[in-house]
Design a protein that fits this description.
Length: 174
């Protein structure tokens, strides 16, 4: 809904130093409507959101990317961020056969790093120097969705191609 986009933008402005123009939210909503979610309070006000997309690099496995995740301070530590991230991950697998999801996080954002590494099992892939506008470095992180989907009993869009690489990797390890 259009008013949701306005409220997502407001939540972003309150919570994060990285802000986007309305057309960027609209682009995500129109291109990948099944990948972005909101958390609402009991009065229907948006208190958190995840904005996500699919990456379209042909040479790599299908994978998603978390553009932005935020939960208002008043609603943190309730599991909303994990729930939002799991919802978008499930949609990435079921709709687009995504084998992993990536994101960037500020090196100084300890709370987010803890969420990503401990609760969501992301792994640091590399450090991207001066990634943010203010010059701060970012951790580029990835979460394996093949393993997670098996654990959660989530059915991918195309099970044959989705599990193909995972089976070969497991054989190599034996």
């Amino acid at each position: 809904r259009t008013e949701d986009l306005m409220n997502i933008q407001h939540c972003n402005l309150l919570c994060l130093p990285e802000n986007y123009q309305m057309k960027y939210y609209m682009y995500h909503g129109l291109s990948w409507p099944q990948l972005s979610y909101v958390a609402e309070d009991e009065k229907g006000r948006i208190v958190g959101y995840v904005l996500a997309k699919m990456e379209e690099e042909a040479e790599d496995d299908p994978h998603g990317h978390i553009t932005s995740l935020a939960v208002k301070r008043s609603h943190r530590r309730l599991g909303l961020a994990q729930k939002l991230m799991d919802q978008t991950a499930q949609a990435m697998v079921e709709t687009f056969n995504a084998k992993y999801v990536s994101l960037h996080v500020r090196k100084s954002n300890r709370a987010a790093l803890n969420l990503y590494t401990q609760a969501l099992r992301f792994q640091i892939n590399e450090i991207e120097p001066k990634y943010y506008a203010d010059g701060e470095d970012a951790y580029a992180m990835k979460r394996d969705l093949v393993v997670w989907s098996k654990q959660q009993d989530i059915q991918p869009a195309d099970p044959t191609t989705f599990f193909r690489g995972a089976t070969q990797e497991n054989e190599k390890k034996k």
